[in-house]
Write a structure and sequence with these properties.
231 residues, 10 helices, 7 strands, 36% helix, binds iron/sulfur cluster, binds FE2/S2 (inorganic) cluster
Length: 231
């Protein structure tokens, strides 16, 4: 199989042997170990949990450790590049700072009322707030959605689907005490109202999360907060 890899300057072509159940991450690892040790890429868990191995494969953002070559190879060729919408540090490695800075801007950190001396505060599995975010809390921070979003590409200050999905999970968390500040944080020009509901984030999320639905939920919560005059 011919594999074109986007290096820092240009594409470089490698010949990689195929084998059963081979993943895209296996291909990149083979290139780095057997053909060119200078190739830079990032991974950690290899089992779809850490979110660090995402790359653009044949033009589509994917988690590479769980993407089988058989599913994406075309005419025995594959093209691999770094994620879109993020600065590239080297080869396939992106700088994730702005991605996680936006989680922070969206107030994506839990704010509780208890101290370490209190008992754990439990959320009932069947409670409406818990059910509303059942899928959304499984986000692994891979940035596939962020890389697939055309609004992020057009306006780099847009908080993006992952940060807004995170804000949505916390707004629905009955233990959290910062919902009003969080709704203010996502209400601005760069927040949820900039989403054009293109659904690319939802289409490509490897965890089958729908940030589009979470963003729609934030818009509803904002309208409600304005109606109740709490913002
Ligand atoms: S639905 Fe919104 S956040 Fe998701 S890709 Fe489209 S514009 Fe971006
Ligand atoms: S919402 Fe999905 S695509 Fe986006 S960072 Fe989380 S797991 Fe990755
Ligand atoms: S290496 Fe952890 S998700 Fe792919």
């Amino acid at each position: 199989m011919k594999v074109s890899v986007k290096r820092s300057s240009a594409f470089q072509e490698f010949e990689v042997p195929r084998h059963p159940s081979q993943t895209v991450l296996d291909v990149v690892t083979y290139i780095q170990r057997a053909l060119d040790p200078t190739l830079a890429y990032r991974f950690a868990c290899r089992v779809g949990m850490c979110g660090s191995c995402a790359m653009t494969v044949n033009g589509v953002a994917r988690w590479t450790c769980r993407t089988h070559v058989d599913r994406v190879v075309k005419d025995d060729r594959m093209e691999i590049a770094a994620l879109r919408n993020l600065p590239v540090i080297r080869d396939l490695v992106t700088d994730m700072r702005e991605f996680f800075d936006k989680w922070s801007k969206a107030k994506g950190r839990f704010e509780g009322a208890l101290t370490k001396n209190d008992d754990f505060q439990k959320v009932k599995p069947g409670s409406p707030g818990r059910i509303a975010v059942d899928a959304a809390i499984e986000c692994i921070g891979c940035a596939v959605c962020y890389s697939s979003c055309d609004v992020v590409a057009a306006r780099p200050d847009y908080l993006g689907p992952a940060a807004l999905n995170r804000a949505w999970t916390l707004v629905k968390d009955e233990r959290d005490t910062a919902s009003v500040e969080r709704l203010r944080a996502v209400a601005g020009d760069a927040g949820c109202h900039s989403c054009h509901t293109h659904m690319s984030c939802t289409e490509h999320c490897p965890k089958q999360i729908s940030p589009t639905a979470g963003i729609a939920g934030l818009k509803r919560e904002l309208s409600l907060a304005v109606f109740k005059n709490v913002l």
